[in-house]
Amino acid sequence: MQAVELKYNKYEAYKDSGINWLGKIPVGWSLKRIKFLFNEINERSFDGAEELLSVSQYTGVTKKSEKVGAGELLTNASTLEGYKIVCEGDLVTNIMLAWNGSLGFSPFNGITSPAYSIYRLKSQDDKRFFHYLFRTELYKSEFKRNSSGVIESRLRLYTDDFFNIWSILPPLQEQTAIANFLDNKTTKIDTAIAQKEKMIELLKERKQIMIQNAVTKGLDPNAKMKDSGVEWIGEIPKNWEVEPIKYSLKGVIDCEHKTAPFVDEKDYFVVRTSNVKDGKLTFDNAKYTHQKGFLEWTERGIPTPGDILLTREAPAGEACLVPNKVQLCLGQRMVWLKVDKTRLIPQLGIYFIYSSVGRTYIDFLSAGSTVLHFNMADIKNIPIINIPLEEQTQIVSHIESQSAKIDKAIALQQTQIEKLKEYKATLIDSAVTGKIKVC
Q: What is the average per-residue pLDDT within 95-103?
């Protein structure tokens, strides 16, 4: 995290806390081990009928029912009998994820997983102060250092280790003043972030509408129009025709099941469905194979730069172009569309697939199914619009030009969001550790 300068007063005097990782604290503040501030609570539900709660680093403690979508199970557990009782104001900690901030004071009565730890303040100290303190990077690092386990995903912060950590303790009046200050400031920051996130969604919507209009209406506002014959496409220019994508392809190659292994050497990239998202090829969680595996994966041909890769399942209907200068082969459930570039500019094909022209067709096929699996006939019949090649070039150029402007505006909003988040984190850290005086 980059340093963020805060223009607030300092305390008149500081003292050495005597704890290396805490450094100096204001004179008048004290330290106590957490065990002297909190009791562990281990009350159990008789029948599991109470409200089920969950905790995360982003939202703190929430009702599980508010995060479950229609048709989804509230929990995979056969019974909630024996789950831990949580009272309003209790500190709920996911012992496996305390190091990333997955803890918080509950605003609800309810129950939570037996794998979580529940703590309750012994004194009249302000729980809001500890809510901010324990979620700082400083304390998350200390929670991680005191957790047991070899790998990050298996770390556990047990009660004895949690209780042994030193807590900063300002006088109660200052705790409350700091919490009030942070409640006010973080609410304003969160509001600003939400506004920028809404702006990003509006910009993405504007981009989608721009692409939709370009691929279905063209660039000439005075063009004579006709009914496309497809309800969800509407009118199109008179010299355009809706047709299946198969007429603009030289072939459709399905990747059959292979046995070639994945290897650590990064020689030959195996494209899986998880590597295709929103029209882009990503290398997140990339898998690779060796030369022998590459020959097996490509026995039906090597994808050509500029052709289209399509996911057949999980999820179906994601697409991207084959990039230049990348040796790749297709993993299972991937399909290679060999584009006839005399009929279709490949990038326009991607725009069609992600516009309502193709997306409505894909959504229709997936209606009522949890997992859509394209068969080859489905893929060949994805609708596109046959447009004169010269107009295709103009449309692609227009979309790329306008998209670049919108993407730049989105990137600016995203940068500002990151700066706000940095400012918020720095403000909280500085206030609860006494680096700045806010009261």
A: 92
